[in-house]
Amino acid sequence: MASPASPRTAIRWRGALALGLAAAFGLVATSWPLLAAPGGALTETTSGPWLFALLLPLVTAVVLVQLADGGMDARAVAMLGVLSAVVAAVRPFGAGAAGVETVFFLIILAGRVFGPGFGFILGNTGLFASALLTGGVGPWMPYQMFAAAFVGLGAGLLPGAAPSTRLGRAGELAMLAAFAVVASLAFGLLLNLSFWPFAITEGNLAYVPGGGAGENLPRLLAYTFATSLGWDLGRAVTTALLIVLTGPVLLRVLRRTARRAQWV
């Protein structure tokens, strides 16, 4: 049983299985340029709707399995809806302009408190709601949802329970800030995968169909360094700073809410 300071426990096997399948599908869907040559139906204009069509049942399955397995009560589901709405509301203040991003700190903090399943779902629903609010619906949206889901999932998998001392809380914030930097850079890399094969067709930065990860990964990293690294660094700095500034209060509030909601 979890301690009073740490309201979450391990996901039960059905929830873990559904979450693992959804995460595996998302990883394959976002990294397909490193696994297979583009062609056929898998193009920039057609892959987005297909990924989105497959994404919703997977996310819904995670929620339903968590509910059926006792992992969420009604108040926890309500918290998911509230946080998704908050993510949608705060995103227009950044929305990636000049690398400033104002949503990932909340996904990371919530994933840390409520666990990997909640973080994965929040990443999906939060980015979906914000896309509807800001008019950002397009073939890139499923990739953004998957990448944000991995951010929340990773935050929920970070080690350690809720610290009870001031030094422990400072260490937790440092860990979350460091994770925010890594996750922000990884988010940009995953998004580049969604259009990089079609953006450049010639030169050392171009995608090589059928080249595999060994040949294409260095090209992807070089493309990211040359085009989007500045934006990714801005996202990393913004997210880490927001975690340091808001983490002490938000972690305490979210953990109090989690205990009252009897979150498992």
Describe the SSE topology:
Blueprint: H1 13-30, H2 32-35, H3 47-68, H4 74-90, H5 104-114, H6 116-134, H7 141-156, H8 166-199, H9 212-227, H10 229-260
Helix pairs in contact: 1-3, 1-7, 3-6, 3-7, 4-6, 5-6, 5-7, 5-10, 6-7, 7-8, 8-9, 8-10
Question: Any overview of this molecule?
Answer:
It is a single chain. The chain has a single domain (13-260), classed as Arp2/3 complex 21 kDa subunit ARPC3. It is globular. Mean pLDDT is 78; it is low at 1-6. The chain has helices at 13-30, 32-35, 47-68, 74-90, 104-114, 116-134, 141-156, 166-199, 212-227, 229-260. The termini are close together. The protein contains 10 helices and no strands. The chain is an all-alpha fold and 264 residues long. 72% of the residues lie in helices and 0% in strands.
In summary, what is this structure?
This protein is mostly helical. It has helices at residues 13-30, 32-35, 47-68, 74-90, 104-114, 116-134, 141-156, 166-199, 212-227, 229-260.
